[in-house]
Specification:
Blueprint lengths: L5 H7 L6 H10 L6 E2 H7 L5 H13 L3 E5 L5 E5 L7 E6 L5 E5 L19 E4 L2 H8 L1
Parallel strand pairs: 4-6
Antiparallel strand pairs: 1-3, 2-3, 4-5
The structure holds zinc ion (2 copies).
Protein name: Transcriptional repressor
Cofactor: Zn(2+)
Keywords: Metal-binding, Zinc
Length: 136
């Protein structure tokens, strides 16, 4: 779901790009699955926990990232390529990974009076890798 580099994305969303923010954002983009705060903390050992949580809150408020609660009730994050990004999540019930999927059709909603920020569709199934493991 990445579009441009971390620094450009931050600027586009009017966030001052500092070293930690760039690192956190880079750790989120460039994956095809979502990442939890705990995984980010263990990946980014040189940034303290509080900074990571604060950065994630900021990114979420500014709508750069999307927070998604997976089947285990754990919050995971992924990048939005644009506001109201029409992407959805595929939960693998075998490996419990959550993968980002682009949807190629826009969803028409009859909502007139409200402003829609995002639409969530949950897809649950078995991912490609797990299917292959099952077959072999
Ligand atoms: Zn799987
Ligand atoms: Zn996603």
């Amino acid at each position: 779901m990445s579009e441009g580099n971390a620094e450009e994305i931050l600027k586009r969303f009017n966030i001052r790009p500092n070293r930690n923010r760039i690192k956190v954002l880079n750790a989120i983009i460039g994956r095809d699955h979502t990442v939890s705060a705990v995984e980010l903390i263990s990946d980014l050992k040189d940034i303290d926990k509080t900074t990571i949580y604060r950065t994630l809150d900021l990114f979420e408020k500014k709508m750069i990232i999307m927070k998604d609660v997976d089947l285990d009730g754990v919050g995971h994050y992924c990048i939005r390529s644009k506001p109201n990004d029409p992407h959805t999540h595929f939960y693998c019930r075998e490996c419990h990974k959550t993968m980002c999927k682009e949807i190629d059709k826009s969803i028409e909603l009859n909502i007139v009076d409200e402003m829609v920020d995002s639409i969530e569709i949950k897809i649950v199934g078995v991912c490609k890798d797990c299917l292959q493991k099952k077959r072999s």
